[in-house]
Amino acid sequence: MAETEGKHTGMRFLLDIKWSLVAFVVTLVLGFLSMGALGAALYYACYPLLSPFYGKLDDWRGDWVWPATIVTGMLWAVSFPVAGALDRHLAPRVPAAPRGVIYLAVLWLGAALVWAFTLASSYEPPAAENRADLVGCGKANRGVIEAALSRVLKSAPALLDEARCLKPPFGSDMVAMVELAPGSDLEAFHPGSDLTEAPLNMLETIFPETFEGLARTDFEVASTFDSGHRNIAVHLIRLRNGKLYALVNDVM
């Protein structure tokens, strides 16, 4: 008799939190399929709490970063059954609106706790000298950069110095940047074009002597695709003081 009653109680509990269980399954799958996007979003949702200890997610380096964002997004799914169980417990005494706020608070706290757990076991503070993963562009990369600029500018531009290459922390594709000589023909320069593929967040890392502390309103950017290689984007940058730069990156 007691065993049967216990089974009925357990079944009633599961039915009462069924939508939280559905959310658990959906979030678990989404945490994996989003390939880290969900985990990254959760970090920034808890940014005021975590950033004093771990800084910006974009500044992290190492092979641990991507797995950590995936695992965190999946582990967060546990917050839904916990929130659902607490909501069921409070239902007889607390109105629906306050319970909804408490439910969301549990999800937020769950995200913070999961990230704190993940970072406690995985976080590797980036050494100051390794924050900018600048590498030599190499002959092959220089050839790609020069060819792309020649096609976009309709002629081979004069370069003031060697191109600088950067390996982003979340991928293997190279981002390259070079300063163009004053007076370069910028017939293809049309500011206001689509900049969705422009890694402007890397300008300060590649050319700190020029872009460190520079506001986005202090320069214009025009973006286009290399007609010879549609997976390569070329971004022409013009500062108010007349300096010219080209940013080249693989968008695939």
Overall description:
- By secondary structure, the protein is an alpha+beta fold.
- The protein folds into two domains: 2-127, no CATH class; 134-250, no CATH class.
- Helices cover 48% and strands 15% of the residues.
- The protein is built from ten helices and six strands; from the N terminus they run H-H-H-H-H-H-H-E-H-E-E-H-H-E-E-E.
- Strands 1-2-3-6-5-4 form a six-stranded antiparallel sheet.
- A hairpin with a 4-residue loop joins strand 5 (229-239) and strand 6 (244-250).
- Helix 2 (18-33) runs antiparallel to helix 6 (79-90), helix 3 (37-45) crosses helix 5 and helix 3 (37-45) packs across helix 7 (96-122).
- It starts with a helix and ends with a strand.
- Mean pLDDT is 81; it is low at 127-132.
Descriptive labels:
252 residues, 2 domains, six-stranded antiparallel beta sheet, elongated
Instruction: Give the termini separation.
Output: 63 Å
Q: What is the helix/strand order?
A: HHHHHHHEHEEHHEEE
Judging from the principal axes of the Cα atoms, what is the shape? elongated
- Largest beta-sheet characterization: 6 strands, antiparallel
Strands of the largest sheet, in order across it? 1-2-3-6-5-4
| Poorly predicted residue ranges | 127-132
How many separate structural domains? 2
Helix content: 40-55%
Strand percentage lies at: 5-15%
Query: Over the alpha carbons, how many angstroms does the gyration radius reach?
Result: 25 Å
Average predicted local confidence, pLDDT = 81
- Total strands: the figure is 6
| Structural category | alpha+beta
By DSSP (H or I, 4+ residues per run), the number of helices equals 10
